[in-house]
């Protein structure tokens, strides 16, 4: 036993000694390996030089080259085209038949192929994967009634359109995806001919996907079909596609950049001859796209003002007075020159204006822009839109921070506003200031009954589009058809609406709870507001200087209005909330001032949220550097909570980068 113990102690001592000196052992091993590499490299180099001087090629070199070439060939086959994925949207079965025929032709090229019905595909989860899959995606889509997609392709097209126009996805969301589009339509319907195919091609291009060939269009109208029938049109396109696919498999480069205007590609020869024309067209295309994103005011003569200042002009409310006076003066002078005709027209138009009352808030240009962003506009100044958290919870996923903080079911929440106008131009506005601005209500007003009825109808119609969508829970879909909560925070300043009290009362009569958000610029309206379920005030800064820089309010007495609004909030006998939006390097160092504002308004809850980056905008110079990390928001909240002893941290929603501070009197 003593001998075994001695052996064990000796082994243990050696092991411990080696472990304590492991650094020196590592160094010695590394030194030995380095010496071996140097010797091997020197010997090999000397050997190659000797064989070269004797005129004998090194035997190993040819073998290595063959192995490298073989490896490169295998790698090229794997990298260039991994397979083909064919998406189809069909109503009568023609597109599906074409997809199956194309699949057989692709299989003959020894390439993997998958045929996918758009109705069974969830682009939200899967489409981005195609950017790295090395697949070529083919879209065979038919245009149905009134230029709409078929029922099976409706959700796919809606998602793609929203993604293309939603800054949160980014312009490079589908960069790396290679695609080709063949549309099925009937030229008898001139206004809607192949609308869906053209739209899908454009939306994919807007998300930086690369087309591998020109978009093609099949025509059911035999008289106008290029090849005599839609089947012949498809066969002609299929031959070109297979040829292009084989070229891609060989690693040949694309014949063009893949970014030609409106899906029309040119050959390299034409591109070299018409480079100046191509640049001019590209410039025009960019200008056209730029015109779709614009900023407008709520004044009466926006369209005429745009004509006076140029199509890309951005007009502030402060400047509209001078512009309007100049325009009216010029109009009167023109009418005097025209004589009696102009006078009679002026009297007629004046009579119509007096008869019709005030003008509508939403101009035709503004209506087009907001509709493109996914708004369902109601009347002349209201809107509703489906929140992404509603879509998420319909699929059985998580809800928004209101679900975590207050138990609001996101799939039963309707996000709306009775007033698209706002009195601020916040630098972090997630609508990029496409909504109108103003300091008072001077527009035509719709009745609250109409607004509520159409809001619910539009909300239900948007929910209905999820019926049958992959991943949507049937029970939640049924529940979502009955909204139980309304977030009056979509955009604008809902408290500006003169009939806001009647509107909120109607909501409550329909058993719909209400969260109303105001930007703290209308203290009298806050005092006159009847109780809502929860009243929010946005506290975007705690000093006069930072509030002016961040919110960019239109009122000259904005700071006094801000303080009066907080005082008015403290007088409300209902649940109240401060909403703090942290902008890094702008307002995160004002803890003591925030604590003073909290003591002024005495809110029941305080929501502290990191700013959301909304993409580049001419209206703001914010970047991702201004978005605080969640850990930074947590640290800010902890320090703020130490300064307000009557409050404590209650909850957090990391996905939204948001925390909740609650007054101890309402401890959950």
UniProtKB/TrEMBL annotation:
Its cofactor is [4Fe-4S] cluster. It catalyses: N(1)-methylguanosine(37) in tRNA(Phe) + pyruvate + S-adenosyl-L-methionine = 4-demethylwyosine(37) in tRNA(Phe) + 5'-deoxyadenosine + L-methionine + CO2 + H2O. The chain crosses the membrane at residues 23-42. Residues 84-242 form the Flavodoxin-like domain. The keyword Transmembrane applies. Residues 406-650 form the Radical SAM core domain. Keywords: 4Fe-4S, Iron, Iron-sulfur, Lyase, Membrane, Metal-binding, Nucleotide-binding, S-adenosyl-L-methionine, Transmembrane, Transmembrane helix, tRNA processing. GO terms for biological process: wybutosine biosynthetic process. Residues 253-318, 331-358 are annotated as: Disordered. Pathway: tRNA modification; wybutosine-tRNA(Phe) biosynthesis. Its EC number is 4.1.3.44. It is an enzyme of class 4 (lyase). It holds the Pfam family Flavodoxin_1. GO terms for molecular function: 4 iron, 4 sulfur cluster binding; FMN binding; metal ion binding; tRNA-4-demethylwyosine synthase activity. Residues 266-283 have a biased composition (Basic and acidic residues). Residues 284-307 have a biased composition (Acidic residues). Coiled coil: none annotated. Probable component of the wybutosine biosynthesis pathway. Wybutosine is a hyper modified guanosine with a tricyclic base found at the 3'-position adjacent to the anticodon of eukaryotic phenylalanine tRNA. Catalyzes the condensation of N-methylguanine with 2 carbon atoms from pyruvate to form the tricyclic 4-demethylwyosine, an intermediate in wybutosine biosynthesis. Belongs to the TYW1 family. This is S-adenosyl-L-methionine-dependent tRNA 4-demethylwyosine synthase TYW1. It comes from Nipponia nippon. The lineage of its organism: Eukaryota, Metazoa, Chordata, Craniata, Vertebrata.
């Amino acid at each position: 036993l003593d001998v075994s113990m001695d052996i064990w102690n000796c082994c243990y001592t050696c092991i411990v000694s080696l472990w304590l000196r492991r650094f020196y052992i590592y160094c010695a091993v590394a030194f030995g390996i380095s010496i071996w590499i140097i010797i091997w490299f020197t010997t090999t180099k000397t050997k190659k030089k000797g064989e070269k001087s004797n005129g004998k090629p090194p035997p190993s070199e040819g073998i290595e080259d063959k192995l490298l070439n073989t490896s490169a060939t295998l790698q090229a086959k794997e990298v260039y085209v991994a397979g083909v994925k064919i998406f189809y949207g069909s109503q009568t079965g023609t597109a599906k038949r074409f997809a199956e025929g194309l699949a057989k032709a692709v299989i003959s090229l020894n390439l993997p192929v998958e045929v996918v019905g758009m109705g069974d595909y969830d682009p939200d989860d899967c489409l981005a994967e195609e950017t790295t899959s090395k697949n070529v995606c083919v879209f065979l889509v038919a245009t149905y009634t009134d230029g709409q997609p078929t029922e099976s392709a409706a959700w796919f097209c809606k998602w793609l359109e929203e993604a293309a126009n939603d800054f949160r996805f980014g312009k490079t969301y589908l960069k790396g995806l290679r695609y080709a589009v063949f549309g099925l339509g009937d030229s008898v319907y001139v206004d809607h001919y192949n609308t869906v195919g053209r739209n899908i091609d454009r939306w994919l291009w807007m998300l930086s996907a690369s087309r591998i060939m020109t978009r093609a269009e099949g025509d059911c109208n035999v008289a106008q079909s290029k090849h005599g029938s839609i089947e012949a049109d498809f066969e002609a396109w299929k031959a070109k596609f297979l040829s292009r696919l084989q070229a891609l498999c060989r690693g040949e480069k694309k014949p063009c950049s893949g970014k030609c205007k409106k899906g029309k590609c040119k050959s390299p020869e034409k591109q070299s001859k018409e480079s100046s024309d191509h640049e001019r067209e590209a410039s025009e295309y960019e200008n056209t796209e730029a015109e779709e994103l614009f900023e407008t005011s709520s004044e009466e003569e926006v369209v005429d003002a745009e004509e006076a200042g140029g199509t890309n002009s951005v007009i502030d409310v402060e400047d509209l007075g001078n512009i309007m006076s100049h325009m009216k003066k010029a109009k009167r002078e023109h009418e005097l020159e025209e004589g009696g005709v102009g006078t009679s027209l002026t009297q007629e138009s004046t009579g119509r204006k007096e008869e019709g009352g005030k003008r509508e808030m939403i101009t035709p240009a503004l209506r087009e822009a907001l509709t493109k962003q996914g708004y369902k506009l109601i009347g002349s100044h209201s809107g509703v839109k489906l929140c992404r958290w509603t879509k998420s919870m319909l699929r059985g996923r998580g809800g928004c921070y209101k679900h975590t903080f207050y138990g609001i079911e996101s799939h039963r929440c309707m996000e709306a506003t009775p007033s698209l106008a706002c009195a601020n131009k916040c630098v972090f506005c997630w609508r990029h200031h496409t909504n109108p601005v103003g300091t008072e209500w001077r527009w035509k007003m719709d009745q609250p009954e109409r607004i509520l009825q159409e809001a619910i109808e539009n909300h239900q119609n948007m929910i209905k589009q999820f019926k049958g969508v992959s991943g949507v829970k049937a029970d939640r879909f049924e529940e979502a058809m009955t909204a139980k909560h309304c977030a009056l925070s979509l955009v604008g300043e809902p408290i500006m609406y003169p009939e806001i009290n009647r509107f909120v009362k109607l909501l409550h009569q329909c058993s719909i709870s209400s969260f109303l958000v105001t930007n703290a610029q209308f203290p009298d309206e806050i005092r006159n507001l009847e109780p809502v379920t929860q009243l929010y005030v946005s506290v975007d800064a705690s000093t006069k200087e930072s509030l002016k820089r961040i919110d960019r309010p239109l009122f000259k007495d904005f700071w006094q209005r801000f303080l009066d609004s907080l005082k008015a909030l403290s007088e409300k006998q209902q649940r109240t909330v401060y909403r703090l939006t942290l902008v890094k390097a702008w307002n995160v160092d004002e803890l003591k001032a925030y604590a003073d504002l909290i003591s002024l308004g005495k809110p029941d809850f305080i929501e502290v949220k990191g700013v959301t980056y909304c993409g580049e905008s001419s209206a703001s110079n914010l970047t991702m550097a201004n978005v605080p990390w969640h850990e930074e928001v947590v640290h800010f909240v902890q320090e703020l909570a130490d300064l307000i002893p009557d409050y404590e941290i209650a909850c957090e929603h990391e996905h939204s980068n948001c925390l909740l501070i609650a007054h101890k009197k309402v401890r959950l």
